[in-house]
Design brief:
about 775 residues; mainly beta; Methylamine Dehydrogenase, Chain H; 4-stranded antiparallel sheet; 5 helices; about 10% helix; about 35% strand
């Protein structure tokens, strides 16, 4: 996550209002919809991509967010109805359970996972209190759900998933009950990335999960179903009763506010989660009677509860510390000096996220760090201040943080603090990287380096963006760390410069944009473009950091089907690299299109075609054509004459193209479909879609046994998502059938049967063998 520019909440209203669809004729409605896309995107003029230390930046959250918003929001509502996804998960799970009990035939495909030692964004970490060796660790990915590793000290220990079909896989926090360690709690919803419009991974929560058998089985606590985002959760021993404290906040996700009910706040339960009481006071200055939004909860060794706050939906109440010895309503002391200080600045004047750490060896030693933001069309948040207390929070002393230009430039997202269990002045803080001191007043040392990912790792390598640090009980020289690259482990945290090791074997929480398969018969290799993890080459073994063949945000990639020695990778905005027998061969900076521009490759002519149109309408009607692959790559923006200005959302090369020519099918973000012939010379485009197609983003065009047979899918909520033709678009049949309302991302036909197909969806792979029948039925 290297970009600092983020969509402000004020901009959210512009985007939502921009997607109101007028009641007019079908064609006028589509034209209106296209105009609204362009109008909304004008507020998001493409920023100049930033690089860090001359390297490809690992993340571009602003435009990634907008692209995902456009291709998934409900066109009639103007926002992403995330709760429909939970219904889709329930439908999928119920159908799978029915099939497992009644199926008397073999499924169409048997799936097998691939090994990897790389992970994705992880916020929740906990050593299992029931493990005698204290080597079992629980981890929660924000898109991958809950996992456990039985021996974090072992490089070869493989992570195990708990349940892939929880209604929300956005795990944010985990804790256990000290009065009964068989009882554990898991909070859901990634509030940190729901403060503004952001990428798809800022998942909405469904409340709190609970286990009473040490993690063997989990159930959602019904009373927490209205908790949209749980930022943190702790359990305190109060006279032998495990009392739960949960930080509950509201957030903005994909154009819609998701408010926790009955309000933000710190919720207390002394009956295992059956009943809850909000115990925090209203924000000083009232601000409409809103309560504080907790970002962090810590309990000192003597039982005092500390709460750090974040700004609420109205940007109020951040940069504040509250503490209480009883945890009850009316007992809280409020320290909001830094809220006032930040608010009075001319620059970085939005009080934001607060993180607290207490020293295990001294309950009176407490640390806190504050983020502050400023709004310049986009909202920037950085770590700006750090303080400590030697009397349990009664008084605070300012201390110097690390270099604020390098420390936590995305503090709304990556911001963590922890104290050495054996040294009350030994502190580790994290933002982009990890920083450490052994005594107060000492100069901060940067002890990890994210950019080593481009050199195969090393002793100081920890992936960018730090989210959690947990010391190992009974062996405080050991600790686990989580980041946007999964889980890392150190046995030498007491050293001036600790040595870090990846612990991501089987931790399948990576996020792929695309992949391409080696066409060599018998080969089991593929390449894939990943969010924040570059492009990886899988070669029939465990994928690790040394398999990274390109950096940045990996986008579309291709493997030449008749010259297997050639493959191509890309990063955002059409920057393509070619490889020949595994060595770099060519590069072209297309500098066009959308963040992740859809593309396809003509492996017969060695031409690549990619969307060249930006969301603001720049390069309207143009496809980026790349020739000279692999050695002499050249790019040219070619006008295909479609007379529309919105981006193309899908491109599919036809393997049935006449000899010496390229035919492609092109779909738009507004639901238009074109067949473009002679794309390699002078393109001729014909619109072949149906006026009944929804005003929505075409996500895929699958070609059957001839160009006559096409399966077209859409990725927006609230629309009919699947359409088929057997006569190149003369007639279309709707094939949504029994699919839940969810984004459909991709489709393929069985190579020998036009009546059989697979769909890649938000809840997994769905299949049918009844496409030729009037009553099609899909099954997960």
């Amino acid at each position: 996550m290297k970009r600092n520019l983020l969509l402000s909440i004020s901009l959210l209203g512009i985007i939502v209002l921009g997607f109101v669809i007028f009641t007019s004729q079908k064609e006028d409605k589509r034209a209106d919809y296209e105009a609204r896309i362009l109008e909304s995107a004008k507020s998001l003029e493409k920023m100049q991509e930033e690089s860090i230390e001359g390297l490809k930046a690992a993340d571009q959250p602003d435009m990634a967010a907008f692209q995902e918003f456009v291709i998934t929001m409900d066109p009639e509502l103007g926002y992403v109805p995330e709760k429909r996804l939970f219904d889709a998960y329930k439908t999928t799970r119920n159908l799978m359970n029915e099939q497992s009990s009644t199926r008397d035939y073999d499924p169409m495909l048997e799936w097998q996972g691939t090994e990897a030692s790389l992970g994705g964004r992880t916020r929740a970490l906990m050593f299992d209190p029931n493990d005698a060796d204290k080597s079992k660790v629980w981890a929660g990915g924000v898109t991958g759900g809950l996992w456990y590793n039985n021996n974090i000290t072992s490089q070869s220990a493989v992570w195990q998933a708990v349940n892939d079909l929880w209604p929300s896989l956005a795990v944010s926090c985990i804790t256990y009950d000290p009065t009964n360690t068989q009882t554990m709690y898991v909070g859901t919803g990634e509030a940190q990335t729901a403060r503004i419009i952001y990428r798809k991974s800022s998942g909405l929560g469904v409340g709190i999960y609970k286990t009473t058998d040490g993690g063997e089985s989990w159930e959602l606590i019904p009373s927490t179903s209205d908790f949209a985002y749980v930022t943190d959760i702790v359990v305190r021993d109060e006279d032998g009763v495990g009392v739960i404290y949960a930080g509950v906040v509201s957030g903005t996700y994909m154009g819609e506010n998701h408010e926790s009910m009955p309000s933000d706040g710190l919720y207390r339960s002394d009956d295992g989660g059956d009943n809850w009481t909000q115990v925090l006071p209203v924000i000083n200055g009232n601000f409409g009677g809103n309560t504080y939004a907790p970002s962090d909860i810590e309990i000192s060794a003597n039982g005092r509860i500390f709460v750090g706050t974040m700004e609420n939906l109205n940007q109020n109440g951040g940069a504040t510390i509250l503490y209480s010895d009883s945890g009850l309503e009316g007992s809280w002391t409020v320290y909001d000096y830094y809220n006032t200080l930040i608010s009075g600045q001319s620059y970085y004047n939005i009080p934001a996220r607060t993180i607290i750490a207490v020293a295990p060896s001294n309950p009176n030693r407490v640390y806190a760090q504050f983020a502050a933001g400023y709004d310049n069309g986009f909202t920037y948040y950085r770590g700006r201040y750090m303080i400590n207390s030697t009397d349990g929070g009664e008084n605070w002393i300012a201390m110097s943080p690390p270099d604020t230009d390098q420390w936590a430039t995305l503090a709304w997202h990556a911001f963590i603090l922890q104290v050495d269990p054996n040294n009350e002045e030994g502190v580790i803080t994290g933002g982009l990287d990890l920083w450490k001191i052994s005594s107060i007043g000492q100069t901060w040392r940067r002890v990890s380096d994210w950019s080593l990912m481009y050199e195969g790792g090393g002793d100081a390598y920890v992936h960018a963006d730090q989210h959690n640090i947990q010391y190992r009980p009974d062996n405080e020289n050991n600790a686990v760390f989580s980041s946007d690259g999964g889980v890392f482990f150190s046995e030498t945290t007491n050293m001036t410069y600790p040595i870090f090791k990846q612990r991501n074997q089987g931790y399948n929480t990576l996020q792929y944009y695309s992949c391409a398969i080696d066409p060599t018969p018998g080969a089991e290799n593929y390449i894939g473009g990943l969010q924040d993890n570059g492009t990886l080459l899988y070669n029939n073994g465990s994928t690790n950091i040394n398999n990274m063949i390109d950096g940045g945000d990996g986008a579309f990639c291709f493997w030449d089907k008749n010259e297997a020695e050639i493959y191509l990778t890309s990063v955002y905005y059409n920057r393509y690299s070619s490889f020949y027998y595994g060595s770099p061969a060519g590069y072209v900076d297309g500098n066009s299109g959308t963040f992740i521009s859809p593309a396809d490759y003509d492996y017969k002519l060695n031409y690549l075609y990619s969307n060249g149109v930006s969301f603001t309408g720049g390069n309207a009607n143009k496809i980026l054509r790349i020739t000279g692959i692999p050695w002499s790559m050249n790019d040219q923006l070619v006008n295909i004459g479609t007379s529309i200005s919105v981006p193309f959302s899908h491109i599919k090369y036809s393997r049935f193209s006449p000899e010496g020519t390229s035919t492609i099918f092109v779909g738009s973000t507004s639901g238009r479909l074109y067949k473009v012939e002679t794309m390699n010379t002078t393109p001729e485009a014909t619109e072949i879609g149906s006026p009944d197609f929804p005003n929505a983003s075409i996500s895929c065009v699958a070609i059957g046994k001839s160009e006559d047979t096409l399966l077209v899918t859409f990725s927006n909520y609230g629309v009919s998502s699947v359409w088929q033709t057997y006569d190149v678009g003369e007639n279309w049949q709707e094939k949504e059938a029994n699919l839940p309302d969810m984004p459909i991302r991709w489709a393929i036909y069985h190579p020998d049967n036009n009546g059989q197909a697979l769909l890649a969806t938000e809840t997994g792979v769905w299949a049918t063998n009844t496409l030729k029948y009037e009553n099609t039925e899909w099954a997960p």
